[in-house]
Amino acid sequence: MPVFISDTELNDLGGDASIIVEKAEGFIRELQEQLETCNARADAASITAEQSCALLEQKYISLSGQFTQIENEKTQLAAALDKRATELAQAQAQAHKLELRAVILFLGE
């Protein structure tokens, strides 16, 4: 039994081949239209996916650049902090020496 026509219809047509061929061709056209629609949707989905991927790649590159910049700033700030900590320690040591000198001078009088 053909998929495009029921047994009852086939019997009613009495074996008229031209009508059966016409129905088969109509069925085939319908299937081709469905296939074209499906292909068009798949193409559209593929294009959308490619565009989304491209946007994500651009965002990744942008964020990666920002991350590298922030990492560099962090390194610079850490170096500046270490320098300031060293300067503070030196200043505190100098202040301590001056306090000791002042005490020695005070006691020496």
Automatic annotation (TrEMBL):
Gene Ontology CC terms: nuclear pore
One example of a Gene Ontology biological process annotation: mRNA export from nucleus
Coiled-coil region(s): 21-48
Top-level division of the source organism's lineage: Eukaryota
Keywords in alphabetical order: Coiled coil
Molecular function per GO: structural constituent of nuclear pore
Keyword Coiled coil set for record: yes
PANTHER family reported for this sequence: NUCLEOPROTEIN TPR, NUCLEOPROTEIN TPR-RELATED
Protein name as catalogued: Uncharacterized protein
Organism per entry: Taxus chinensis (Chinese yew)
